[in-house]
Design goal:
This protein has 4 helices and 7 strands. It is of the alpha/beta class and 175 residues long. A 7-stranded mixed beta sheet has the order 3-2-1-4-5-7-6, covered by helices on one side.
Length: 175
């Protein structure tokens, strides 16, 4: 897997040989950032954004965001081995605009989310939306842009944009 665009374009993202996550596909990553950059309904200036990649896994979303010039990325993954790989990549490219945490977003209230403008949520497949809504979304400050990647179709009252793929859906909404 490689960075698609920006200052780290073409650099290989470090992925564990035996992993328990599913990296976000290149096409979906590209669509996310094209929408963030060019969709007026989302009203985002990437250069001013602090983004949280809540279930970071490989860190591909956050790394892509840094490559494209976001102000800062907070990478969070409960698995320390995942965030170690992300940090290894970021040290190689000498980026300092990031923070790494290992919170369990279901059990710990993440005060750090209050400083974020965009929160990317791509939980493991077996984590239902009700759990995310009850344990995570309820703790996010209002007016943050949330991007939720899910294999399920979800009805949201505050939906701004929805993109459907073969077996995945992206939901853009504000809290």
């Amino acid at each position: 897997m490689r960075v698609i665009s920006g200052k780290y374009k073409g650099r290989k993202i470090l992925v564990e040989s035996k992993n328990n996550y599913r990296p976000t596909l290149t096409r979906i990553r590209e669509d996310i950032f094209n929408l963030l950059l060019h969709n007026n309904d989302l009203n985002i200036d990437l250069n001013q954004v602090i983004l949280c990649d809540l279930f970071a896994g490989t860190g591909s979303i956050g790394i892509e965001a840094l490559s494209r010039g976001v102000k800062k990325v907070i990478f969070n993954d409960i698995e320390k081995k995942h965030t170690n790989k992300i940090e290894e990549f970021l040290k190689k490219v000498d980026d300092i605009n990031y923070e790494i945490t290992n919170f369990d977003p279901y059990k710990q209230k993440m005060e750090i989310l209050n400083n974020c403008h965009v929160i990317y949520i791509d939980p493991p497949y077996d984590h239902g939306f009700e759990l995310i809504q009850k344990k995570i979304l309820m703790n996010i400050q209002s007016n943050n842009l949330v991007i939720l990647e899910s294999s399920n179709l979800i009805n949201l009252d505050n939906l701004i944009l929805k993109k459907q793929y073969k077996n995945k859906n992206l939901f853009f909404f504000r809290t």
